[in-house]
Amino acid sequence: MYRLYGNSGMANLAPHMALETIGAPYEMVRVDTASKEHQGATYLRLNPTGRVPVLVDGEQPIFETAAILLHLADRHPDAGLMPPVGTVERGLAYQWLIHLTNSVQVAYLAYYYPERQVADAALADSVRQAAEVRAGELFDLLDKALAGRDWLTADRPGIVDFMLLMLTRWGRNFAGRPPRLLPNIGTHAARTAALPAVIRAFEQEGLTQPWY
Ligand SMILES: N[C@@H](CCC(=O)N[C@@H](CS)C(=O)NCC(=O)O)C(=O)O
């Protein structure tokens, strides 16, 4: 039995898609981030970074979205959420998952929490604008990588696609160029968001259309 802690549309969304795809029993536990529940002692015992999400597998908490996704894919190989170990496709999946978490997600964290990047709060708007530009550059690269492909790393959808859809969604309110407007990102998002398990995750998190 798993427990996934998170809040609507936050970084728990991709693991939520994975759990719905796998079909193993799990409980979604809502963390009230508005009242800073994720900074409280009870939550910090599960995830000492004070961020969402955290997955509890049995008694063991695992934090970091990409690690949770990889763990779920490993635990349920029959779900085919990662290419087989030792294949070139697996290497490509590692490449993109780490890029998504290490570069794209980092740009988003600067976009959503710009005040944390600067000592002078007056500079926060400028940080946010720069983060949107940086995310846009990274999405241009992802759009190229998707040319001629249905899924980012394999011939079937997997955790990397779930992570990409979640990050595509996070840019839906960009002032300039939301990622969905890029041709391949847009079709990838539509394709992934049409999967029944993904639809269930969106709906269970109470997310209303447009999803990305
Ligand atoms: N690298 C971490 C980042 C987690 C993260 O920053 N989560 C955001 C939500 S998407 C969060 O906890 N925000 C609340 C806060 O920072 O106070 C992961 O992927 O798990």
TrEMBL record:
SUPFAM superfamilies in the cross-refs: GST C-terminal domain-like (SSF47616), Thioredoxin-like (SSF52833)
* Protein name, entry field: Glutathione S-transferase
Which UniProt keywords are given for this protein, alphabetically ordered?
Transferase
Question: Where do the TM regions start and end?
Answer: none
The entry's family comment says:
Belongs to the GST superfamily.
One example of the protein's molecular function in GO is:
transferase activity
